[in-house]
Amino acid sequence: MRHANKIAAACVAVAMIGTTGTAIAEIVKPGDVKFDGNKVTMSLSGTSGNSADGKKWFANRKLGNCLACHVNKDLADKPFHGEIGPPLDGVAGRYSAPELRAILVNSKQVLSEDTIMPGFYRVDPGARMAKKFKGKTILSAQQVEDIIAYLQTLKE
Ligand code: HEC
Fold this sequence. Notes:
Layout: H1 2-15, H2 51-59, H3 91-94, H4 97-105, H5 107-110, H6 141-151
Helix pairs in contact: 2-6, 4-6
Bound molecules: heme C.
Heme C (HEC) binds at residues 58, 64-66, 68-70, 84-86, 88, 91, 94, 100, 103-104, 111-112, 115-117, 120, 147.
């Protein structure tokens, strides 16, 4: 029986290789994200992010809404930005992509337990989060990757 399961698993793995021969990107579920200290090394979406999209999510009130708490030089002309969190100018030099991913997935685990910054890829993002996010992550795996790509453009 065990043997049969192994064969079944192997078939599923083969089935996931697309017709072009490249493996179909697999999304890491929030509960399956692996922390290596302060880092999350693997892309959550299995692909790399798009920085232009990331900048959009960063400023989007309904998604990241990072702008409510952080303002960076390149977004300073946007109305209603907040200053609760530090400006993220130069953040690319302070953190690597795996470190940024860990902060975004679960800020409480990486920055400080009582930070008001929500964890964006957790099903329980924090007490302050709106009820509509209960049982859901605030950002999708790809949106997190896109925001990481955007943060990596903030070199100074
Ligand atoms: C409710 C406010 C709030 C929101 C929303 C928020 N943050 Fe933060 N963030 C903070 C605070 C405050 C800190 C500083 C750590 C602390 O003292 O809690 C921080 C720290 C950070 C840091 C580390 C900065 C450094 O230089 O050490 C990064 C990176 C970051 N936030 C990215 C983001 C991104 C990206 C988003 C949106 C997806 C976001 N934050 C949304 C409040 C927020």
